[in-house]
Design goal:
The protein has one domain (15-186): HAD superfamily/HAD-like (Rossmann fold, 3-Layer(aba) Sandwich). It is 31% helix and 16% strand. The protein is built from six helices and six strands; from the N terminus they run βαβααβαβαββα. The chain is globular, with a radius of gyration of 15 Å. It binds magnesium ion and zinc ion (ZN).
Length: 189
């Protein structure tokens, strides 16, 4: 068990909110701008299958400021997410929803992580409360968004950022990748 903090006994996880880049697919410095830029991280689809097979709802919540910058259109983003959804289907995974923030850091919106807006929206859309929700992300902004929304969080080292330092509410720790996370979260203790 790689985690420093354990979930409560008899805990039942109902919703996992997945950050996208660095969790499901490979980060690109220029950003993933079209569906041909999409490269699955090893084990990501198996991990999604594992979680989904354990009756955990899955949502994606991703910052996509390239839309606000005008270098990617909403249609291109929809095509990327269409590919993602299509390629999860053979793994028997259905996402409840895919949420994105199109804004720039300076827009001061409430949805761009580390703000909690996307996480709140994910919980609202799935009808699951913060106690039964866990966010998995590769950056400090993901962990901070989860903390601000009051849900659990887990860091994966398959992306861009290192693990957050210092104690944080409901932060479980850092693991190698999504497949490790899924195995830990679905292991019966
Ligand atoms: Mg990320
Ligand atoms: Zn936003």
């Amino acid at each position: 068990m790689e985690l420093g903090v354990r979930l409560p006994r008899h805990y039942r996880l109902e919703l996992v909110v997945l950050d996208r880049d660095g969790v499901l697919n490979r980060n690109l410095d220029r950003g993933v701008r079209q569906s041909s830029d999409w490269v699955w991280l090893p084990g990501a689809r198996a991990a999604a299958n594992c979680l989904f097979a354990h009756d955990i709802r899955l949502m994606v919540a991703t910052n996509q400021a390239n839309i606000g910058r005008g270098i990617m259109t909403t249609e291109q983003l929809a095509a990327i997410h269409g590919r993602m959804v299509d390629e999860l289907r053979p793994a028997h995974v259905r996402l409840t929803d895919v949420l994105h923030c199109p804004h720039l850091p300076d827009d001061r919106c409430f949805c761009r992580k580390p703000e909690p807006g996307l996480v709140h929206a994910a919980m609202r859309a799935s009808g699951v409360d913060a106690e039964r929700t866990l966010l998995i992300g590769d950056q400090m902004s993901d962990i901070a968004a989860a903390g601000a929304a009051g849900c659990w969080s887990l860091h994966v080292r398959s992306g861009r950022g290192g693990p957050p330092t210092g104690p944080r509410p409901r932060y479980l720790g850092s693991v190698a990748n999504l497949l490790t996370a899924a195995r830990i979260l679905t292991a019966t203790s």
